[in-house]
Amino acid sequence: MTDTLAQLTAKDFTSHQEPKWCPGCGDFAVLQQLKNAMADLGLKTEEVVVVSGIGCSSRLPYYIATYGVHGIHGRAMAMASGIKTARPELSVWVGTGDGDALSIGGNHYIHTVRRNLDLNVILFNNEIYGLTKGQYSPTSKVGLRTVTSPNGVVDHPINTVALTLGAGGTFVARVMDRDGKFMRDIFKRAAEHKGTSVVEIYQNCPIFNDGAFDAFSSKERKADTTIYLEQGKPLVFGLDNRKGIRLDGFTPVMVNLDDASVSQDDLWVHDEKDFIKANILSRFFDDPDTMQNALPRPFGIFYVEDRITYEDALTAQIDSAQERGEGTFEELLTGSSTWTIS
Amino acid sequence: MSETTILNKKDMVTAKSSVSVLFAGDSGDGMQLTGTQFANTVAVYGSDLNTFPNFPSEIRPPAGTISGVSGFQLQFGTAGVYTPGAKFDVMIAMNAAALKANLKNLHHGGIIIADTDGFDARNLTLSGYGEANNPLEDGTLKDYTVFSIPVISLTRKALADTGLSTKFIDRCKNMFVLGVLYWLYSLPIETTIETLQTKFRNKQDIADANIKAVQAGYNFGDETEMFSQHGRFSVAPADKKPGVYRRVTGNEASAIGLAAAAKKAGLELFLGSYPITPASEILQTLAGMKKFGVKTFQAEDEIAGVLTSIGAAYAGALAATNTSGPGLALKSEGLGLAVILEIPLVIINVMRGGPSTGLPTKPEQSDLLMAMYGRHGDAPMPVIAAKSPVDCFYAAYEAAKIAVEYMTPVLCLTDGYLALSSEPMLVPSPDALASITPVFSPARKADDPAYLPYKRDERGVRQWAIPGTPGLEHRIGGLEKHHETGNVSHDPENHALMTKMRAEKVARVAEIVPDLTIDNGPEKGDLLVLGWGSTYGAIKKAVEQALDGGCSVAHAHLRYINPFPKNLREIMGNYKKVLIPENNCGQLLSLIRDKFLCEPVGFSKVQGLPFNEMEIEAKITDILKEL
Question: What does the alpha-carbon distance between residue B526 and residue B549 come to, in Å, rounded to a whole number?
Answer without folding.
Answer: 14
